[in-house]
Design a protein that fits this description.
With about 180 residues, the protein is mainly α. It has 6 helices and no strands. It has helices at about 5-10, 15-25, 55-80, 90-110, 120-145, 150-175.
């Protein structure tokens, strides 16, 4: 069970009990078991419990980063091939779609193998996670491209990292839960 957090006590609105543990300003080492949440339910906050990460989680994170790097490379290569032939924003979206397809297949079958049998629901959850990713990436892309005047390539490169952490949490702890979790 999550206890009252520092975030709640200083008036931050808390929409969900798990969100309280994510924005909790109390140092992790002094929380005790207050943040421990049942990760088997697919809780994102389950990753934030105090102590060391399990080796299985570290291995999944490393594979996720490899897949992410490969998917980012796919996006950059396709973007580079499209820039100058189509509008930069169209190039960004087309390269993002190709990258996302690569990302799904590599995560589903290698980086984050899952024992889930509800494939349609899982795909729907993945599409939701990628929608969140696209929203974050598009906002950052527009910040650098339109507001700061960077070119499409640099704007895309800088737009990828902010969504990576959010997407890993959603995919690892909900969409592609570990076998036996």
């Amino acid at each position: 069970m999550i206890e009252t957090s520092v975030a709640e006590s200083v008036g931050f609105p808390v929409l969900h009990r798990e969100l309280a543990s994510i924005i909790d300003l109390t140092p992790w080492w002094s929380r005790g078991n207050a943040v421990a949440v049942d990760a088997a339910r697919g809780s994102v906050a389950g990753m934030l419990k105090p102590g060391k990460f399990e080796p299985k989680t570290i291995g999944r994170a490393v594979r996720f980063l490899v897949v992410g790097g490969g998917s980012a490379l796919v996006q950059i290569v396709i973007l580079g091939g499209l820039v100058g032939h189509v509008h930069d924003r169209v190039a960004f979206v087309l390269s993002w779609i190709a990258s996302t397809m690569t990302h799904y297949l590599a995560n589903r079958f290698w980086a984050l193998p899952s024992a889930r049998s509800d494939t349609r629901k899982q795909l729907g959850e993945y599409l939701f996670a990628t929608g969140v990713s696209l929203f974050i990436q598009w906002a950052v892309f527009e910040l650098f491209y339109a507001a700061m005047g960077l070119d499409a390539m640099w704007s895309t490169v800088l737009a990828i990292p902010p969504s990576t952490v959010v997407v890993f949490l959603i995919l690892n702890y909900r969409v592609f839960r570990a076998r036996g979790a």
